[in-house]
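Reply to thread "Modeling small-molecule complexes from scratch"

Following up on the discussion above, here's a worked example others can learn from. I took a protein sequence and the SMILES for coenzyme A and predicted the complex. Inputs first:
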Amino acid sequence: MLLEQQNTTTTYQLGDGLCLRFATVDDVEPLAQFNGRIHGDDGFNPFVAQATREFTSPAHPYIGPDNVTLVEDSRTKQIVSSMCLIPQTWTYDGVPFEVGRPEVVGTDPAFRRRGLVRAQFELLHAASERAGHLAQAITGIPWYYRQFGYEYALDLSGGRWVYPELIAPPPADEVEAYRFRAMTIADIPLAMQLYELACARSLIACRRPGWWWQRMLTEVSPNSADYRHFVIVETPDGQPRGYVAYSLDFGGTEFPIPELNIIAGEPLRAVLPPLSRWLKAIAEPEMRQRGKPSFVLSFKVGAQHPAFEAAPDLFHKVRRPYGWYVRVTDVPRFLNDIAPVLEERLARSGLAGYSGAIAVTEYVRGFRIAIERGKISTEAYAPDEDVNAWFPPLTFLQLLFGRRSFEELDDAYPDCFASAQVEPVLKVLFPKRFSNVLPLG
Ligand SMILES: CC(C)(COP(=O)(O)OP(=O)(O)OC[C@H]1O[C@@H](n2cnc3c(N)ncnc32)[C@H](O)[C@@H]1OP(=O)(O)O)[C@@H](O)C(=O)NCCC(=O)NCCS
């Protein structure tokens, strides 16, 4: 496909009467219907349809039609494939970087396996790079997105289950120690503070400005896939102690609780029983209505969480994380942007003041991390005989984003290794670190 004169009004002919283009305001409702149909597990998904109405609208603050592509059959004027890109800012140990998040990827069954999604990725990747995004990240079906340059480089959700049948009843004749109410805009400062603290525990995190909270509480439709029910946890006399979020956009039998942030010092062991009872009371009728009387409360709050530390016995099963697919085409640029973090790691280690070079080959590309008395700079590098660290294609991203340690990669891939001199430097620069990224949707 020719992308030279790319702008959001260009139409690309893909052959067979199929045209690829960015969406316009006229596409909002047809696209809502298309996405609702394609992304409905058991029929039409009204949550995805409503999210599409909102994100394709020119009024959307960060997506809008210019970030939505579609393929139209010019003979029937029907939309046959579509996806979107959600721009957002993530942080790497506090250092911001821009990300484009492809989402709502779907093709009509009659038009699948003709490269329609591949063509849209080409367009949106180019748009993402032009917008200055250093990475793209997507949550999605197994293996598929590897074809477009992505690697499973970050944990995605994970957490623990609570079986409703095992939740203790409330103590007789006692008022619950906590009560729950919908979050309001007056609670935003507390929510932001607690969210920031949660981000500080996560190597990679997504920024949520104040306007995001305001919009979530006042503008996003509760019928949208992007909506979260934010609930304040407070004492019986109305003192806010934290917040929890649940979502009603789910399939299967896991009732999702993607966020739980309680102020430091509040006894989590005391919060969890009333919270579980309250969530069970919310989930039960919802699940009954969906014909799923047997369900679990799924605290999808990441593989690590203060609640799991405080009260492991109040959770009944570990839910292992899936993975974010991440794509970084310019690894040297990314490493240069986060150099202050890497320099700090080095300075705090036994390798403080180190000088040397890590010449990395990923077999299909390479880069050289030059370290001069602890100052780090990286440039692209055509791998040659001076290489001293070897990673099979894209696996370096698992190390960069802290998902796997160097030892784990070395164990998993026979073609991953490093010289005795640089192995300790790699370990200091890229330690394994927990992440739980809650993206902008
Ligand atoms: C998955 C889906 C989006 C693929 O759309 P598509 O238009 O058929 O995709 P493309 O033809 O552009 O796929 C690119 C390549 O992947 C292949 N491919 C398509 N579907 C695939 C699948 N499910 N698994 C593996 N490979 C697949 C194609 O053959 C093509 O290969 P090629 O470029 O070597 O010829 C489509 O099947 C769909 O809408 N599924 C239901 C909704 C869904 O699951 N969306 C993804 C949510 S994360």
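What I'd highlight from this example: The longest strand covers residues 78-92. Residues 268-289 form the longest helix (22 residues). Questions welcome below.
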